[in-house]
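Quiz preparation item.
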């Protein structure tokens, strides 16, 4: 059965869930949500991000690992009232004073015997006599049979209880709203800016009968490998086992360029006259440098980082290069300004002569 809901990026899905939470907190709407998407597309991460953002306690329940009684609770016999009473499980939120997100992951892979119990949570916000507090946001997630995952078709009785979002991988959204915020390795971000088609290759891998595919989750694992393993031979084997041999071979070329970069700390410590000579002279190298600068910037290094970013547009002076330096400089400042606004560091731009000169040049060229 096809999912005839609007397809959105992970960032757009997060915006929708924010709006849903705001409406629920205001008491104007209370619904349960369903995130559909291929394995590794970022469904779990966006739920975690939302929970952190709204200060909510996250109750993460993997429905493939539990039985109906794990949600319903266990019965015992009350001899005084001559009634069966149920012990409520601790996995369900019950604090009316603190926001909570109840995340029912792997819903489409859960046993059909569990679904009737889940129905009550999704529609009536209750299990047995236990009613969830009004400050609990319910989000479910799952894959489909077409994704190559273990899954059951979702029946209408279940689907009718949910607002559905089809989450798809979008390279630009992922790079701007996730990779930079998580400070992923610059080799990963530089590579995927050049090859956005390799962010998610699940469909192609399924068509070719291959087990390993590139996904947003696997690229995060590549970032961890790049940061933790220095031996290139071992690193290559690990990365091939994470994203497949073909993608790993392409990625290795960019990784080698980024490996050769001067460090951000060395650039920040260098004199302005020496700095340009230390900077890379390839597109991949410069993109990697930009992502590294943005990933590591803080209040102390922001002024120097602005100076370095402004210098990128001047690298062709006497170097005989034909790089898209103006575009790269503008791209770098877009990322840097976005991070500055997110972390309250924007005042550094107002006092920066380098940024004022850059802005004046842009205005003179009619690009401001």
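Solution:
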């Amino acid at each position: 059965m096809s999912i005839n809901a609007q397809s959105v990026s992970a960032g757009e899905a997060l915006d929708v869930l924010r709006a849903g939470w705001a409406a629920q907190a205001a008491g104007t709407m209370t619904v349960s949500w369903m995130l559909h998407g291929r394995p590794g597309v970022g469904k779990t991460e966006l739920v975690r991000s939302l929970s952190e953002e709204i200060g909510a306690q996250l109750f993460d329940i993997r429905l493939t690992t539990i039985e109906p009684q794990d949600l319903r609770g266990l019965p015992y016999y009350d001899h005084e009232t001559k009634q069966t009473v149920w012990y409520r499980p601790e996995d369900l939120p019950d604090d009316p004073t603190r926001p909570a997100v109840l995340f029912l992951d792997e819903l489409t892979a859960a046993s059909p015997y569990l679904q009737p119990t889940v129905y009550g949570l999704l529609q009536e916000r209750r299990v047995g006599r236990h009613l969830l507090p009004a400050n609990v946001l319910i989000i479910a997630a799952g894959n489909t049979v077409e994704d190559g995952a273990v899954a059951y078709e979702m029946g209408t009785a279940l689907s009718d209880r949910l607002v559905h979002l089809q989450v798809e991988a979008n390279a630009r959204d992922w790079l701007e709203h996730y990779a930079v915020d998580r400070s992923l390795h610059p080799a990963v971000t530089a590579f995927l800016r050049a090859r956005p088609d390799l962010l998610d290759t699940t469909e192609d891998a399924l068509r070719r009968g291959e087990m390993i595919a590139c996904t947003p989750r696997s690229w995060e694992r590549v970032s961890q490998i790049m940061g933790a393993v220095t031996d290139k031979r071992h690193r290559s084997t690990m990365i091939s086992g994470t994203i497949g041999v073909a993608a790993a071979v392409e990625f290795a070329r960019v990784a080698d360029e980024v490996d050769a970069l001067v460090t951000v700390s060395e650039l920040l410590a260098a004199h302005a006259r020496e700095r340009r000579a230390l900077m890379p002279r390839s597109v991949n190298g410069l993109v990697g440098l930009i992502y590294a600068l943005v990933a590591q910037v803080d209040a102390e290094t922001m002024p120097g980082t602005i100076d370095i970013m402004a210098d990128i547009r001047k690298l062709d002076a006497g170097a005989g290069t034909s790089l898209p330096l103006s575009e790269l400089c503008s791209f770098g400042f877009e990322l840097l300004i976005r991070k500055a606004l997110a972390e309250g560091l924007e005042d550094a731009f107002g006092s920066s002569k380098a940024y004022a000169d850059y802005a004046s040049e842009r205005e003179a060229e009619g690009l401001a």
